[in-house]
Design goal:
The chain is mainly α. Helices cover about 20% and strands about 5% of the residues. The chain has 1 helix and 2 strands, in the order ββα.
Length: about 150
């Protein structure tokens, strides 16, 4: 059982100018219009372009709002950092700025300036986490009773 082949008519007329188009011609020789070929319409490209343009405009608006919100703060930066020593580390000792009073009858040197010089070999201004700071000792007059 074979299916009969669809036969095209020997001649047809052009859909545009009604000129005769013979078998084997795909285009009209008089006007150039397609005789046997169907042209597909161009796809609608306007909707995707409108959607992309709208998304770009919304992204620009969001970026402008975010930029204004971030830069509309105070003019002075507020940087707060805090450092805490480890749990086992001793608290750093604050240097003493007072000088002991001279003992009665002791020789007095130049007047005191209110600060003490660091001990030889002591480092100042650096704290190593986990290390203890050396304590400074104040000379004690043996003639002064303790606690007073």
């Amino acid at each position: 059982m074979s299916t009969p082949a669809v036969q095209e008519p020997a001649t047809i007329t052009c859909p545009r100018c009604q000129a005769v188009v013979v078998r084997g011609q795909d285009w009209c020789l008089a006007c150039g219009a397609p005789a046997r070929t169907r042209l597909a319409p161009a796809p609608n490209w306007k909707l995707p372009v409108v959607i992309v343009a709208t998304l770009i405009a919304l992204a620009v608006v969001v970026l402008v709002i975010a930029f204004v919100a971030l830069t509309n703060g105070s003019s002075q930066p507020t940087a707060t950092t805090s450092t805490t020593p480890p749990a086992g580390a001793a608290a750093p000792a604050t240097p003493s700025t007072s000088t002991p009073a001279p003992a009665p009858g002791a020789a007095t040197g130049p007047p005191a300036t209110g600060t003490t010089a660091p001990a030889p070999g002591a480092t100042t201004g650096t704290t190593v986490p986990g290390a203890t700071t050396p304590s400074t000792t104040t000379p004690v007059d043996p003639s002064t009773p303790p606690g007073g």
